[in-house]
Amino acid sequence: MEGIYFLLLELKEPIEKRVGALGDIEFKEGRYIYVGSAQNSVEGRVSRHLRSEKSKHWHIDYLLENARIEEVLAFEMDRETECDSARALGKRFVEIEGFGSSDCNCDSHLFFAQKGLEELIEDISTTVGEKEIRSKDLDLQ
């Protein structure tokens, strides 16, 4: 499947982390939403994110050393929807400045959200305006 995806992450304790060229970032304890896209295979990209052993290629790789993926939502949509979704989420949640957006004009693709998991899933589905495909329904190798 090609499209966009949202990683819903939980960080159990606050950390300060060096994130590539972004430098040191302080992350609060709580939930985060990361917006990404994969035009070849969302399943392949998400499977990579789920692996513990991988080289650090994207900003999210650094955070995933400490954060746990609680849920994955995927949508069969074009790549432009990734940035539209990130901008919409930026109006509702706290942006982590520059995170995941070095290849576009967005302020961020990572957002801090102090909400319950099911409430976040509802917020994302409403923001995107589509029915999500949840991680249990993806063919993750």
Short description:
The chain is of the alpha+beta class and 141 residues long. It is 26% helix and 31% strand. It has a 6-stranded antiparallel sheet.
Question: What does the model show?
Answer:
This protein has 141 residues and is α+β, with helices and mostly antiparallel strands. It has one domain (3-137). The protein has four helices and eight strands. The chain has helices spanning 42-50, 59-63, 80-90, 117-128, and strands at 3-11, 15-19, 23-27, 30-38, 68-75, 94-95, 110-113, 133-134. A six-stranded antiparallel sheet has the order 6-7-4-1-5-8. A hairpin with a 3-residue loop joins strand 2 and strand 3.
Q: Main attributes?
A:
six-stranded antiparallel beta sheet; 8 strands; two-stranded antiparallel sheet; 26% helix; alpha+beta; 141 residues
